[in-house]
Amino acid sequence: MSDPNAVPPVTLNRLSIYLRCLRRLRDQGVRQVSSQQLAHRYRLSAAQIRKDLTQFGEFGIRGVGYEVDQLCDRLASVLGVDHTRSIVVVGMGNLGSALARHVGFNSESFAVVGGFDNDPKKVGSTVGHLAISHISELPTVVRETNAEIGVLTVPAPAAQHNYDALTAAGIKAVLNFAPVRLKLDPRVQTKNVDLSINLEELGFFLGQG
Amino acid sequence: MSDPNAVPPVTLNRLSIYLRCLRRLRDQGVRQVSSQQLAHRYRLSAAQIRKDLTQFGEFGIRGVGYEVDQLCDRLASVLGVDHTRSIVVVGMGNLGSALARHVGFNSESFAVVGGFDNDPKKVGSTVGHLAISHISELPTVVRETNAEIGVLTVPAPAAQHNYDALTAAGIKAVLNFAPVRLKLDPRVQTKNVDLSINLEELGFFLGQG
Question: Looking at the domain covering B4-78, what would its CATH class be?
Answer without folding.
Answer: mainly alpha
